[in-house]
Amino acid sequence: MNEKMDSNVSRRDFVKALGLMGVGSVVGAGSALAQPAAPADAAPAAAKPAKVPTRAFGKTGVQVSMLGLGGIFDTISNQLVLKQAVDWGVTYWDTAEGYQNGNSEKGMGMFLEKNPQARKDMFIVTKSGGRDLTDSLNKSLERLKTDYVDAYFLHGSTGGFKPETKTWVEKAKADKKIRFFGFSTHSNMAKNLQDAAKAGWIDCIMLKYDYSLMQADDMKAAMDAAAKAGIGLTAMKTQARQAIKTETEADLKMGGHFIKRGFTQEQAKLKILWDNPQLSCICSQMPSVTILQANIAAALDKTTLTAQDHRIMREYAEATRSLRCAGCTQFCEAAPGHEAPIGDVMRCLMYHRSYGDQELARTVFRQLPEAARRGLAGFDYAAAERACPHGLPIAQLMREANALFA
Q1: What's the pLDDT at 160?
Q2: Residue 134 contacts by C-beta under 8 Å, 6 or more apart in sequence?
């Protein structure tokens, strides 16, 4: 990683802290190393936490923390996570109007109300389902206890914005309620990035992006186009969690390799993406201090990944490609006879099986069209399965989702 760091965390001390003291001590160990030696008669000074490095956010002129806090959890009951995030420089916070029935925004608002001095250093992002943008934004601002958000996203957008959306954005910016505008995308990411680059007025995009998707030629070209257009890019779903939950020999090989290198496989999946300078931020769900510290340790570590590290990750991606949905719904959902929102249902299965978040999975599932939910188990998925580049057993997975969520 090339970013300038605020602490001098050496490789040896990083591995020692991770392996011997436990991940909860990594950041404290790193920041202590950066402190000058105190005189023998001086009282011990409290070590300041190391700060996560920042990166330019497209052409916005803003620097954002390269690790962002994904606020899909109940932040009301997790105020300590928010405080620790700010202390360690994780100041890019992402939420949405519907996360935890509004409790994600409310919890962040509680923190900002109690710590108003922190707002100037924060980069707050929230998202709307796109029905009434003005009403959605005003309600989000109220819950967040702020006069503006730094970025406002259309949630799960498929692109193709109407002229009136651009007009709305211009007014919201003029009213100083938003600084930047963009969208999040879980499917057909390459096309959506290319369309945004051509549009010329999209400031930022949050996209599903991981160690497997980064290998695809169409994604490489789309990232190039978006970066050239000056769009700030935030990665989400970076762990490539699986709709089919299983552990394979490939998991053991990849995990074993990176443990020897001093990382967990989760940390390695973050570091492999940070090797791409086009990426401004990785937004990660971090509902506990333990996960927060583990990700911060990965962000602070200066180790350069080797060609072998990249090769191991490519091999792992190829060996496990049939276990996860890559979001390429332009194939399965365009197949003859398609009637089901396959990509969204796959996302529900991922939340349920890999995140262990049954409530989130059911919430997202209930937001799908009623007719699609009602007929999920009875649709004919033969053409969709033939169209899937990864050979996923779509019919089986849709039946399983129907049994879990309907």
Answers
A1: 67
A2: 168, 172
Length of the chain: 406
Query: Do the Cβ atoms of 286 and 69 come closer than 8 Å?
Result: yes
Q: What's the confidence (pLDDT) of residue 2? A: 37
- Segment 118-174, tens digit of pLDDT: 999 999 999 998 779 999 999 999 999 999 999 999 988 766 678 899 999 999 999
Angle of helix 358-366 relative to helix 342-350, nearest 10 degrees?
Answer: 160
3 state DSSP class of 35: coil
What is the reported pTM? 0.82
Whether 35 maps to a domain, the answer reads: no
What DSSP designation does 24 have? G
On whether the CB atoms of residues 267 and 305 are closer than 8 A, the answer is: no
Domain-located, residue 19 = no
Q: How many helices (H) and strands (E) does the chain have?
A: 18, 10
Cα–Cα distance between 174 and 172 in angstroms, integer? 5
Asked if residue 201 is part of any domain, the answer here is yes
DSSP single-letter state for residue 36? P
**Residues 6+ away with beta carbon under 8 Å from 343:** 186, 187, 325, 327, 329, 332, 333
Residue 275: other Cβ atoms inside 10 A: 14
**189 and 99 within one domain:** yes
List pLDDT tens digits, range 340-376.
889 889 888 888 887 778 888 888 888 888 888 888 8
Looking at the DSSP assignment, which residues form a beta bridge with residue 282? 67, 235
Tens-digit pLDDT profile for residues 297-306: 999 999 999 9
Q: How far is CA 247 from the centre of its chain?
A: 23
Same domain? For 107 and 165 the reply is: yes
Write out pLDDT tens, residues 39-75: 344 444 556 778 999 999 999 999 999 999 999 888 9
d(CA 44, CA 42) in angstroms, rounded, equals 6
CATH of the domain at 94: 3.20.20.100
- The first and second tokens of residue 308, run together, are 């072998």
Q: Which domain holds residue 359?
A: 325-405
Whether 188 is in a domain gets the answer: yes
CA distances to 79, 142, 400 from 153, in Å: 24, 17, 31
